[in-house]
Amino acid sequence: MKKHFLAIDELTRDEIFDIFALTKDLKDKTKRREEHHLLKGYSLAMIFAKPSTRTRVSFETGIFQLGGTALYLAPQDIGIGTREAVKDVARVIARYNDIIMARLFAHSDIEELAEYSDVPVVNGLTDYNHPCQIMCDAFTILEHKGTLDNLKIVYVGDGNNIAHSWINFAARVPIHLVICSPRDYQPDPDTLHRANDAGISKIELISDPIAAVTDADIVYTDVWASMGQEAEAAERKKIFMPYQLNTTLMSHAKDDALVMHCLPAHRGDEITDEVMEGKQSIVFDEAENRMHVQKAIMVKLAGKA
């Protein structure tokens, strides 16, 4: 693997599936309560410009299970890029710790952090992408479906960082990816162009949610207003309500279609409680797998597997 984990399309297909294989091994060991201290003595610095329940708990618990320790740095602790230059933070934190995970706003900040860090940097989320999430999502689909190849995966909602990471994944693994967003909320065209140029997957933009989910194997959604977009929430709710993941919309997908959400969910907005709690939902399986996949990524970056 490369030194850092910033985006899925920086990996090869083989590297992606190597991570999945290690994830399965580490998850099995965790379930058996079998010690796997592959990162004994390692320290993980977790830089948060954006707070998150799952990201903090999954990384902190994960590094502990690997025999290491974690240091949580809240937004007020660093003020990355405001109180102190990103490149200065990178060089200082890297001298104290073995791995850096950062959950930031600007993608340029994670790139600068990686450029100046002497230790591996893991992208815990930026406004542009969320690679750990989609790696865990893909692993979860693999667990349930036994394959990823050519599955119809439909993302319904804002063309945000989740959509971008699915597009990046489609540039490496053959899937049928449909992004269903209102016309003014579609994903970054350059990201789409690069993925289409890769020629690996069929990628479609469809604004009609019924047409999009027809015969879908996976139906995926996310919040309509991400962190930092709170002022737009009321207006977005009006625009996105036809894209709500409810039983009516799900009736157009395959009978064995699976429902996914990266969480936190705004029940009654982008997804109904009935669908979230329904038999097709694997939302909490994917939430659990964040930890297992991230453990594998850290072990790979550290060169311990």
What is the CA-CA span between the terminal residues?
A: 11 Å
Radius of gyration: 19 Å
Structural class: alpha/beta
Q: What kind of sheet is the major sheet?
A: 5 strands, parallel
CATH class of the largest domain: Alpha Beta
Order of helices and strands: HEHEHHEHEHEHEHEHEHHEHH
Label the CATH architecture of the largest domain.
Answer: 3-Layer(aba) Sandwich
Strand content: 5-15%
If you consult CATH, what is the topology of the largest domain?
Rossmann fold
What is the number of domains?
Answer: 2
Please bin the fraction of helical residues.
40-55%
Can you walk through the features of this model?
With 305 residues, the chain is an alpha/beta fold. Helices cover 43% and strands 14% of the residues. It has a five-stranded parallel β-sheet with strand order 7-6-5-8-9. Strands 2-1-3-4 form a four-stranded parallel β-sheet, with helices on both faces. Strand 1, helix 2 and strand 2 form a beta-alpha-beta unit. Helix 2 packs across helix 13 and helix 6 packs across helix 7. The mean pLDDT is 96.
Write the layout of secondary structure elements.
Elements: H1 13-31, E1 43-48, H2 53-65, E2 69-73, H3 75-78, H4 86-96, E3 99-103, H5 107-116, E4 121-125, H6 131-145, E5 152-156, H7 161-170, E6 176-180, H8 189-198, E7 202-205, H9 209-213, E8 218-221, H10 233-240, H11 247-250, E9 258-261, H12 273-276, H13 283-301
Parallel strand pairs: 1-2, 1-3, 3-4, 5-6, 5-8, 6-7, 8-9
Helix pairs in contact: 1-13, 2-13, 4-5, 6-7, 6-13, 7-8
